[in-house]
């Protein structure tokens, strides 16, 4: 029977289709074959939408095998997927016509999926169908529909306003159809015992997240990286074997944007998987070496992400070493800080200087007294960064002042011998900040002066009052009120 004739018969028949109407199983199989073939498919998708809208639930789902509808949904998803590429989009720009056609296909397919979910919701309340029939069908179609929605809901080259709107509505409907309150609950389950749908989603993504295939579909990495943060502790540990290899694969790419995506995924895994699971089979060491290699990058966003990730990974590694009684003269934290300080000494790009300086206090704080191993190089970095202004917000200087405060607190016995050099640098910075006629806001200037004053107070305490003695002459000869106020605070501190 022609599809147009079938639609007319279904519209006229109402709840009871006439005997001449073929079973839904047969019709949907034919549509699936048509969508998988080489024939034009746009008309078939529109006809499917009309069929879903016109058909009664009992005809559509009664006697229908879940695998049949699952196969049709997969065929529709493939039809609406962004065009495969032999090279990445950055190397082979898409034509506007290709992008527009992909977006229109996605909008049509999304509309068909919406009609399907509406029918499935209606079927739940039908006496002859109910959850016993709808449940297995939903289990088959939820994974592919979720991946379709995640592919098209965010602004990408292959989407437009209509396709994004349909995809967002589809995701909301899918979450509701599953009886969940959020995407996170949909993926991970309502409780730790509830498996959720993340395993099904990763099962579908796995075949496209291999070394040879992950770049062919430009949406795959984005779907994975958008999905992963929704699955948190304690659920994520159950899927560590599925999520860690793709995250490492994406982070190991030559493109900086892919590296950044991969590092963010690795950071989420580190934060949400127990340390024991991370250390099993040497996984944490593998992640550490992958991150350490990224420290040679010259891109500030990537370096920032890597340093934050390492700060959370290093305690995991060191705890495991203590438990295994593997004592090392230097730790992974020493290796990272040594490389960071080496790069900081020679770095002239302000964006990278700011990133390094923001992360440095956390490394000093975590090392504690062991920061004494790095004092020579750290001193050179502190002096160099205090000397150079890095713009209106002065992030590098503020970060280095905080670093110096942490260093004095932890390595105070080593400070008296460094007092002349540090005192000179801090006083010079006080004067530079006070006389600065640039665009630095007053609150930033005040923060710099306060930070320098606190450093002077700490130096005075660990040097048994030597700073007060050395500042006597400066205070008596200085005529600038702001600088005098800072020195006065040091002199009056007990």
SSE blueprint and pairings:
Blueprint: H1 3-13, H2 24-36, H3 42-54, H4 57-61, H5 66-80, H6 96-124, H7 130-152, H8 161-177, H9 183-188, H10 198-206, H11 220-227, H12 240-251, H13 256-272, H14 275-279, H15 283-294, H16 300-324, H17 332-346, H18 350-367, H19 375-387, H20 395-410, H21 419-435, H22 442-462, H23 466-477, H24 481-492
Helix pairs in contact: 1-3, 2-5, 3-6, 5-6, 5-7, 6-7, 6-8, 7-8, 7-10, 12-13, 13-16, 15-16, 16-18, 17-18, 17-19, 18-20, 19-20, 19-21, 20-22, 21-22, 22-24, 23-24
Would you write up a description of this structure?
- It is a single chain.
- This protein is mainly α.
- It is 70% helix and 0% strand.
- It contains 24 helices and no strands.
- Helix 1 runs parallel beside helix 3 and helix 5 runs parallel beside helix 7.
- The protein is elongated and about 105 Å long.
Mean pLDDT: 88
Separate helix tally = 24
> Percent helix among the residues?
55-70%
Find the count of extended strands (DSSP E, 2+ residues).
0
Q: Report the principal-axis shape.
A: elongated
**How far apart lie the N and C ends?**
96 Å
Low-confidence stretches: 89-93
Radius of gyration: 31 Å
Would you list the SSEs in sequence order as H and E? Answer: HHHHHHHHHHHHHHHHHHHHHHHH
For the report, how would you describe the main beta sheet? Answer: none
Q: What structural class is derived from the secondary structure elements?
A: mainly alpha
Strand content: under 5%
């Amino acid at each position: 029977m022609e599809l147009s004739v079938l639609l007319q018969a279904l519209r006229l028949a109402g709840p009871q289709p006439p005997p001449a109407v073929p079973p839904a199983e047969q019709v949907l199989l034919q549509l699936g074959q048509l969508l998988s073939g080489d024939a034009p498919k746009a008309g078939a998708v529109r006809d499917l939408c009309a069929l879903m809208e016109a058909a009664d639930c009992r005809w559509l789902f009664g006697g229908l095998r879940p695998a049949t509808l699952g196969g049709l949904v997969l065929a529709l998803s493939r039809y609406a997927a962004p065009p495969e590429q032999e090279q990445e989009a950055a190397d082979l720009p898409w034509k506007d016509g290709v992008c527009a056609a992909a977006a229109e296909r996605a909008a049509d397919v999304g509309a068909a999926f919406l009609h399907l979910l509406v029918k499935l919701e209606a079927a739940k309340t039908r006496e002859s169908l109910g959850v016993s029939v709808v449940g297995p069908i939903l289990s088959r179609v939820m994974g592919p529909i979720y991946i379709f929605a995640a592919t098209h809901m965010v602004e990408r080259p292959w989407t437009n306003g209509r396709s994004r709107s349909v995809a967002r509505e589809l995701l909301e409907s899918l979450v509701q159809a599953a009886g969940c309150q959020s995407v996170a609950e949909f993926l991970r389950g309502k409780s730790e015992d509830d498996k959720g749908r993340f395993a099904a989603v990763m099962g579908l993504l796995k075949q496209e997240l291999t070394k040879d295939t992950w770049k062919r579909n430009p949406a795959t990495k984005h779907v994975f990286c958008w999905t992963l943060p929704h699955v948190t502790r304690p659920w994520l540990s159950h899927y560590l074997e599925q999520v860690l290899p793709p995250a490492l694969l994406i982070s190991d790419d030559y493109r900086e944007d892919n590296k950044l995506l991969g590092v963010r995924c690795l950071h989420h895994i580190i934060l949400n998987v127990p340390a024991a699971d991370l250390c099993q089979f040497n996984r944490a060491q593998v992640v550490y070496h992958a991150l350490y290699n990224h420290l040679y990058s010259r891109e500030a966003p990537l370096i920032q992400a890597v340093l934050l990730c390492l700060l959370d990974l290093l305690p995991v590694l060191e705890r495991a070493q203590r438990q295994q009684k593997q004592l090392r003269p230097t730790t992974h934290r020493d290796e990272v800080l040594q490389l960071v300080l080496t790069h900081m000494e020679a770095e002239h790009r302000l964006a990278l200087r700011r990133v390094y300086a923001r992360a440095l206090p956390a490394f000093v704080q975590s090392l504690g007294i062991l920061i004494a191993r790095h004092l020579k190089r750290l001193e050179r970095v502190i002096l160099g960064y205090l000397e150079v202004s890095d713009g209106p917000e002065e992030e590098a200087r503020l970060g280095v002042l905080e670093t110096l405060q942490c260093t004095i607190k932890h390595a105070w016995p080593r400070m008296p011998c460094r007092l002349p050099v540090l005192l000179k640098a801090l006083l010079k910075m006080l004067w530079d900040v006070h006389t600065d006629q640039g665009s630095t806001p007053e609150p930033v200037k005040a923060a710099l002066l306060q930070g320098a004053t606190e450093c002077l107070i700490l130096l005075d305490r660990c040097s048994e009052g030597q700073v007060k003695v050395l500042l006597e002459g400066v205070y008596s000869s200085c005529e600038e009120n702001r600088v005098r106020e800072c020195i006065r605070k040091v002199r009056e501190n007990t």
